[in-house]
Amino acid sequence: MEEEINNRIQCDWNNWRKVSGVICDRKVPIRLKGRVHKAVVRPAMTYGLEAAPLKKTEGKKLNVTEMRILRWMSGVTKKDKVRNEHIRGTAKVTDASKKVQEERLRFVWPPDEKRRATHGKRSNVRGGGWNTKERKT
Question: Which domain holds residue 97?
């Protein structure tokens, strides 16, 4: 699993390098940089981890990598003593480990209000499927 985490982190940095012209530009607003990060960089890191069991140390490794990228993106160093929460708040980005956990929950059990509301009827959700409550007719 350690190799897979390191591979995901490497993919994260590779995608960051691809868009570093936009992300590191001081003229681009930080919120737009955050959106680019969420759309391009983070999916490379979280891809395939929704089915993998993560240890706390591995989740921390993902968070550290993401914070390094966010600090670089916002032009803030550790010497500036700006808290991580402030940087995440300005870019509107959450923890990578929390995102992986959300993806895992979505992967394992998709909470779908439409499916629950049908009460046994064929769901109109993509992929179909039957509700767990069956109606007697």
Answer: 2-111
